[in-house]
Amino acid sequence: MEISTLFFSILLSLLPISELRGGIPYAFFNGVSLLVAAPLCILANALVAPIAYTFLATAHKLLHARWLWYASFFDRFVAKAQKRVYPKVSKYGYWGILLFVAVPLPITGAWTGTLGSWILGLDKRKTMMAVFGGVVVSGLIVTSLVALGVGIDSVFIKRI
Q1: pLDDT tens per residue, range 44-83
Q2: Is the dihedral of CA 131, 136, 140, 142 positive or negative?
Q3: Which residue in 7, 19, 40, 113 has the most C-beta neighbors within 10 A?
């Protein structure tokens, strides 16, 4: 087990495109035990919510205060998103976020769940707990698929 493999596994787990769908299989198919790869990648992916919230809050404050076009666009975008999504969010709440993050498919995951919660103005602490729960479930699903094997590597990693 090389440090570079662990580093790239963590990096893949933090990236919005790959998240756990990339981190765990990458580590496993490069010689890291699933008992090491899964918890490591799950913990790395769980850091997405606080990182994203910090970045979004900081960047938003700076842009909203300095650029009127951004403030106008953002305010209209949020109003439209809240109007369209509010019925579903009020129905499913934080369980919906957890399930959305838990599905290990493209466009679902910790980044999208956190971004959606932030745009809708949901509670930061509850969102982080829901995202963490979804990351754990997603990690268990991906780990199970990798452990079952039989060509599953081609689902997550493109062979060259």
Answers
A1: 999 999 998 888 888 888 888 888 888 888 888 877 877 7
A2: positive
A3: 19
